[in-house]
Amino acid sequence: MLMQSSAIFATKPASAPLGVKAVYRTSSGDSNSMAATVRGPKWAQKTITLPPHRRGCHLVTSQILKEIRPDLSEFKCGLAHLFLHHTSASLTINENYDSDVRDDTETFLNKIVPEGRSAPWKHTLEGPDDMPAHIKSSMFGCSLTIPITDGRLNMGTWQGIWLCEHRDAPTARKVVVTLNGI
Amino acid sequence: MLMQSSAIFATKPASAPLGVKAVYRTSSGDSNSMAATVRGPKWAQKTITLPPHRRGCHLVTSQILKEIRPDLSEFKCGLAHLFLHHTSASLTINENYDSDVRDDTETFLNKIVPEGRSAPWKHTLEGPDDMPAHIKSSMFGCSLTIPITDGRLNMGTWQGIWLCEHRDAPTARKVVVTLNGI
Amino acid sequence: MLMQSSAIFATKPASAPLGVKAVYRTSSGDSNSMAATVRGPKWAQKTITLPPHRRGCHLVTSQILKEIRPDLSEFKCGLAHLFLHHTSASLTINENYDSDVRDDTETFLNKIVPEGRSAPWKHTLEGPDDMPAHIKSSMFGCSLTIPITDGRLNMGTWQGIWLCEHRDAPTARKVVVTLNGI
Hints:
Three copies of one chain form a homotrimer.
Chain A: E1 21-25, E2 42-50, E3 56-59, H1 61-72, E4 77-84, E5 89-95, H2 99-112, H3 130-140, E6 143-149, E7 152-153, E8 159-165, E9 173-181
Antiparallel strand pairs in A: 2-9, 3-8, 4-6, 4-9, 5-8, 6-7
């Protein structure tokens, strides 16, 4: 995403340990206003494509980081926003270690959203899995906002980014990533 | 929202195709630091009122755009944040075409959240539909964050903004819209 | 979070009533470009720790405000982002008055997510409450974004921030708070 590879931050604020207690103010043409400033805030935006995944919940943290890491590393403090362009899949944050957790979550979704002959749906033209997919998409949501600290996604030890594919037929999924920070 | 109608962006970054791969840096008093800069980031905030909608899921994309489009058009890249001021309705993003999808989603919500005599709720003073409404509001959530690209909400082809009214009595609903970008 | 206690905003935009209709543009070294400008945007980020709460839904608005109020008060317009570092608890916005609403919500969550012998989960090594906790965390989500207006969280009259603890054993929970605005 970045056009230049040069460093962006002029100086670091003389702050407490980053990620714990820090404030950043950007300079705005008045060089006397602060002892420590960073250059103006940056925005970066990129549409990435996740390859087709089978129906179920999938850990995609590393796939997403592979696409955005160079840009992410330029942000001292900020927010990363991920927005899935679809209404039959979802993005959520959950456990990043045991794949059984993903399987059990898929089991849960299928248990509470009826599908097939027993289901009361009017919207059936796109297949029996389509209406359940829409419902699951609103339950988990199609976007995530994650803090950035020192060039990295500031998530908990056990947190990962999941793509939940709710359709039977795997298809590529687009995610608009917007990074904002300093 | 905007006080002036003059253009805000000084020059475009000489970037790759927008929305796909782009980075923006704001000038910060140092005119030599970049070949292409945009003026400082903007924030716009406005409280809009959605008219009363009957219980169920409603597509409100055009109602919201009508209120924010002039402001939105001033942002090259950014994020739009919508925040519903209520705990018995919700905002979600889902299918924008077939109204059956909205009806089926309402059917689902009523199916999994018990209401009336069979329901185990202690909170019943505000009517049998009130406690279910609170639960549905947390299931779908009361806020959305959507990327802005080239002056438009950057959503997928089939995505729309839904207001889900969970109370029986339709009431006007307030949404705080915050736009941030460059 | 703030290193200095001095005022940050140079001048107020000569805008319509704040929170209703307002636009803010930051100065960017060009003092002639606007009649009214504010200094550059600020970012503040802090990790706060919520003390252990018993399983269930808890109103934590005041606990969170106690930690961030001094910093919040420095923002005229912006967004507050809260990000829980855990996958077995959740953050949601809901009713702030009647504790029965929190109790009923906990009742609902336990009703739709099976636990114990009747549950179909494969992931059971961390206890019978662990897999249900993961599912509930994705249902309600682990992050919130709330508008800031005039130094305060701009929520509705009846809205509050809930921490939902989904594990039996209470533990302290970390929340990364990121404030961004002007």
